[in-house]
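As described in the Methods, two query proteins were run sequentially through the folding procedure within a single session, without resetting any intermediate state between them. The first query and its resulting structure tokens are shown here.
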Amino acid sequence: MEAIKTTNLVKKYGNKRVVDNLNLCVPEGAVYGFIGRNGAGKSTTQKIVCGLANASGGEVKLFGKSIDNIENRKKIGTLIEQPGVYPGMTALENVILQGYNIGISEPEKAAKRALTEVGLGDVMKKKAKHLSLGMRQRLGLAVAMLGEPELLVLDEPINGLDPEGIVQFREIIEKLNYEKGITIFISSHILGELSKIATHYGIIKDGKLVEQVTAQELTRKRKDYLKVKVKDAENAAVYLERQLNVKQCEICSDQELHIYDCFDTGKVTTLLSRQGFELTEIYLHQQDLEEYFINLMGGKDNE
């Protein structure tokens, strides 16, 4: 079953379509990385899913039922933009207050459980204003976890965090997904971190879904290549094509070429050296999520 399924989802502001016929499918139990440039429509889509914005058209279903189903809405926890907390109150008081706001039974017990789940059990009596940025983000996550949701919607939760804070937040997300089976719908610009936890990806551009793939499919689609820095790259390419039957070879400059269908560095090095080509560098370049995304968007010049 899909935790989230949108059909021809549209959101207009005036005459501008911020979300344009979006057909999104987030499988239950997935960590779904939602990727796009600023202004692509990520936050708006997530707000519609959470009921914080109304769609102009189309349909949203959560766990197979309409987004308007009240019981279904209780299955969602959200952290959109910055967590709304009171700086003069302790972490525990903030979460208890939110528990009362949403009608949680035994809000103090639920608050302590949620704070422990996000790694704030030791600082729950510390005032929010004295928490680090990373801790405040986890406090926001604790609020989202109050109702023991089956789906978490997180909008750029690691932006601005230091490396340690990013790692801590990532580990919490992994734990919530793996141990509790919570579906995670997360947007982020830090694609290197996202690639460590995501099982599925949706890539959005100008409100339209450009691509939707699993992590395994993305691994197969990424273009890895052998990067070879050698003087007289054009003649070196001709020679390698003849000797190794290389068919996919790109000459990037007079001293660099990329080989897409042969990754044997030892064989390439031996052949070029024996033929007298001056080789200065050779290694396998593996395309990461960030590079794949940039290429899909049309390259850096179009950013």
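Immediately afterward, the second query was submitted; its sequence and tokens are:
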Amino acid sequence: MKYICSACILGIKCRYDGGSNKIEKILCKFSDDLLVPACPEQLGGLPTPREPCEPTKDGKKIIQGEGKVSTKSGQDITNLIIKGGNQVLKIARLLDINKAIMKQGSPSCGYGKIPDGNFSGNRIKGIGIASAILEENGIKIYTEKDI
């Protein structure tokens, strides 16, 4: 099997703070599968490390033009986040991948839980921008919580 996978959960140091969210059980459980790492925020052109960002609405609404993604200091980076999500989709299509394992709680990759938009550390029900783009294009999304 082939999966697009949030790069941070594979141990790649691409989180906003320069760290990773490495999850050994994913690496072990899928050791015979092809896990293609992708970080939508990096693919959109954001550096690592970078200022934290949060969406004001669910990813599906943001890609329809409602809401935005802002950094903690208020910079609107919506276009970069959407660009990164589209780049992840492009990789999935190039490699004929129809499944993804995405990091729950991320503004880009989140699925099921995303930041609340207030930089409070709270998570709300929703979907991140990259996951919304993938799902709308027929990619089945899983999170580390599903594994």
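The longest helix spans residues 78-94. We note this only descriptively and draw no conclusion about the first query from it.
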